[in-house]
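Open question from group meeting: does this chain pack into something compact, or does most of it stay loose? Before anyone orders reagents, we agreed to write out a predicted structure and look at it together. Recording both the input and the output here so the notebook holds the full record.
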Amino acid sequence: QVQLVESGGGLVQPGGSLRLRCAASGFTFSTYPMNWYRQVPGKERELVATISITGSNTNYADSVQGRFTISRDNAKNTLYLQMNSLKPDDTAMYYCNARRTIVYNYWGQGTQVTVSS
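Structure tokens returned:
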């Protein structure tokens, strides 16, 4: 079955860095555009970054532009999110998403990122 498993979250001080990882299985990873979302309790899920199937095109939310980098390794079926210069406002549950159509739309279980001193 389809699985997206995020890892790499944790507690980090402001200004610190984390690298999130999303391991994909059960579908043809290299044919899906991939996304990272985040969500804070009581708020809507926010699109953080997107990457095309080859990795040649990326887009970022204004709030993370210049600090976060999305990448993928199609040979390893893995998606990454490098997060630098973290701020308390980056605290959220981060989710990996694979979406090709409304039907072919898969989510991971999330990994918690907490930025606090």
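Observations to bring back to the group:
The chain has a mean pLDDT of 97.
The CA atoms of residues 3 and 25 lie 5 Å apart.
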